[in-house]
Amino acid sequence: MDIGKAEETLERIETQPPDVVIRRLPLYARSLRYLLQEGIHSVSSQELGERINVTAAQIRKDLSYFGEFGKQGIGYDVEKLLDHIERILGLHHDWPVALVGVGHLGQAIARYEGFRSKGIRIVALFDSDPAKRGQEFAGLTILSSEQIATVVPVHHIKMAIVAVPAIYAQGVTDLLVAAGVHAILNYAPITVRAPEGVWVRYIDPVAVLHSMTYYLARDHNPMNNGA
Amino acid sequence: MDIGKAEETLERIETQPPDVVIRRLPLYARSLRYLLQEGIHSVSSQELGERINVTAAQIRKDLSYFGEFGKQGIGYDVEKLLDHIERILGLHHDWPVALVGVGHLGQAIARYEGFRSKGIRIVALFDSDPAKRGQEFAGLTILSSEQIATVVPVHHIKMAIVAVPAIYAQGVTDLLVAAGVHAILNYAPITVRAPEGVWVRYIDPVAVLHSMTYYLARDHNPMNNGA
Question: What average pLDDT does this structure show over B4-20?
């Protein structure tokens, strides 16, 4: 191996895509799906960017981590780019998902057709409430949380959605991780601990609202009933 | 004004807290509330950090944007720090919130007690479905989306939650902005356009799952039924 090659390899290792890029890829993919639905088969980075409030330069830079796409002045083939991004995201595989917690929120999640999207499928429901056990919901039988340990490995489940009250979130996380889950989407309003190599992300609408009130309070007169 | 003062002022202007700091403050506040519930009244940045997977140094740096808190070796007074963070976030004021879209998701949102948290209160429900108009839900009467223009200003609503299908999200956003809303939490799986000065943030669980499949596919063998 000559020095040029070695340096090139080193550079590739150093340019692992940052997480912020990985997080934008699903938005690109979704936008490309909408384009296809509209019957649009070619798009410039400018046009794609306008649809998702990202600059054309940002899109080109993000995609450059994964190879060469599109041609200067011609734009991207929508179908090919979508296919490529879905492959990068691992969405050509089937990722069975467990949902823990079938209360009001969990029911809305189980019903939400967005979760029946490319690559993702909720295949098991768990709830600690004995009254719910055995009930059918959204085409699945609700299982006891104690069955996480046995059912998760059988279905090769690596990904789970947690929609339990905050006080149970850590216990459920521990059960899921012990059963082989490596990616958790946590709706409970609390930060959980998980071992290295397990990805935990949060859906935290109240925290998001509370961050926006900062800007509202700075820029606007709130209703003045405050302390 | 001497040059020293001018430089200090300049530095303050330059050290406006970045958005990522503003987004962490609600997590600090929540963790402090949990501490109070547990009867804990003093906490070190180390202990606080462990609860939310943030380093002690990060917490100290984040808080330093807003003044001096705690004393070296003594830690923070939980109640005082919470009060201070809530004031920074504008949560000592009352922010009435409109919810647009009362389908399965909207119903779960309207019922979710987390949204009846400090500073935030859903005060108006809108839905375009004539069959829903006039129905009571979560203590509120569902109004027609056409009433956004009149009801939002009357209630001084500056913040809204959008839980409508993707194809309606832009239209609803436009109505809300025209009625005086400056902060939108958008659950619809599409990026919307809003004028300068309007904050739009997204709750996008499918995009989050799709970003985690990237890491799963990289680190693990998926079920191999893929294309």
Answer: 65
Q: Which residue of A has its CA nearest to B33?
A: A190
Tokens of A184: 């958790």
CA dist A2 and A11 (Å) reads: 14
pLDDT the model gives residue A6 = 54
User: Around Cβ B129, how many Cβ atoms within 10 Å?
Assistant: 13
> Does the structure show a pLDDT above 80 at A8?
no
Strands A183-186 and A159-162: parallel
Confidence of residue B11 (pLDDT cuts 50, 70, 90): low
Secondary structure class of B76 (helix, strand, coil)? strand
Q: Which residue of B has its CA nearest to A224?
A: B93
Of A167, A216, A220, A45, the C-alpha closest to B38 is A167
Q: Are A90 and B214 within 8 A, CB to CB?
A: yes
pLDDT in tens, B26-53: 999 999 999 999 999 999 999 999 999 9
Whole-number Å distance between alpha carbons of A174 and A30: 32
B209 close to A89: Cβ distance less than 8 angstroms:
no
Residue A1 has pLDDT above 80, yes or no: no
Strand A42-43 and strand B183-186: pairing? unpaired
Place of tokens 């779960």: B108
Cα–Cα distance, A91 to A84 (Å, whole number) = 10
**CA B200, CA A102: separation in Å to the nearest integer?**
29
Q: What is the CA radius of gyration of chain B?
A: 22
Rounded Cα gap, residues A89 and A28, in angstroms:
11
Residue contact B182–A105, C-beta within 8 A? no
Handedness of CA A162, A170, A203, B219 (dihedral sign): negative
B26 token code pair: 């609600």
For testing contact with chain B, the best of A93, A123, A218 (most B CBs within 10 A): A93
How far is the C-alpha of B222 from the C-alpha of B227, rounded, in Å?
12
Q: Which residues of A touch B182 (CB under 8 A)?
A: 215-216, 219-220
Closest C-alpha to A120, from B120, B206, B84:
B206
Taking phi over 0 as left and psi of -120 to 50 as alpha, with beta for the rest, A226 belongs to beta
**Rounded Cα distance, B205 and B186, in Å:** 12
Q: What is the pTM of this model?
A: 0.88
E-strand ranges in chain A read 42-43, 76-77, 95-100, 120-127, 136-137, 140-144, 159-162, 183-186, 199-202
- Which of the residues A33, A137, A211 would you substitute to probe the B interface, choosing the one with the greatest number of B C-beta atoms within 10 Å? A211
Q: What is residue B200's three-state secondary structure? A: strand
